[in-house]
């Protein structure tokens, strides 16, 4: 994992911090963590090189802050809106709608998707931190909903596979958009399709989960 100082960066509270985060996001996305330089970032941000150490500790700290800012911004903008006592079917619908809104968010900077994809392809030590702080809780939330909808005898593997299947349905529209545009050139999926896609994915997933529940988990360890 990144060092302790790098892992405790606070929310940006100054114009310089915000400029550094935005500039760093673009530079890291374009060149990758290893090739990008603090000098490049500071020149783009119009900031003194010492500002990186002052606000983020070092290059690692800045990179970690940039990576954290991406999912944090999406989670704040599109929360899965359900409270205590909500039926699991409604929780699943809310979760899927939230995820699709994040997938189709056209208002996010272009580097958001690029930098996260680069981190997956060329992982740094930051990936461990991202998994523990962001990806694992996000997966566990859906796994908890999935477990509620499956029979109590469902195995952990059944819960895991069903959870990943639901996630895959949602993110496919983004990850495979270049392929989809060629397969269906007259049909482009976008934000306006979210209600219909959410309804379809929810209904499709609930039907599958119901079948698994009837099979007492269906998949053995």
Short description, anyone?
68% of the residues lie in helices and 0% in strands. The protein is mainly alpha-helical and 221 residues long.
Tell me about this structure.
The protein is mainly α and 221 residues long. It folds into 2 domains: 6-68, Arc Repressor Mutant, subunit A; 78-214, Orthogonal Bundle (Tetracycline Repressor, domain 2). The chain is built from 10 helices and no strands. It has helices spanning 15-31, 38-45, 50-56, 59-77, 88-103, 110-121, 126-149, 156-175, 177-183, 194-214. Mean pLDDT is 87; it is low at 3-10 and 217-221.
CATH class identity of the largest domain: Mainly Alpha
Report strand %: under 5%
CATH superfamily membership of the largest domain: Tetracycline Repressor, domain 2
- What's the β-strand tally? 0
Order of helices and strands: HHHHHHHHHH
CATH architecture of the largest domain: Orthogonal Bundle
Query: What is the helix fraction of residues, given as a range?
Result: 55-70%
How widely separated are the two ends? 31 Å
Which residue ranges are poorly predicted, with pLDDT under 50 across at least 5 consecutive positions?
A: 3-10, 217-221
Q: How would a crystallographer describe the biggest sheet?
A: none
Q: Count helical runs.
A: 10
Helix/strand-derived category reads mainly alpha
Q: Give the integer mean of the pLDDT values.
A: 87
Estimate nothing, just give the exact number of structural domains. Answer: 2
CATH third-tier fold name of the largest domain:
Tetracycline Repressor, domain 2
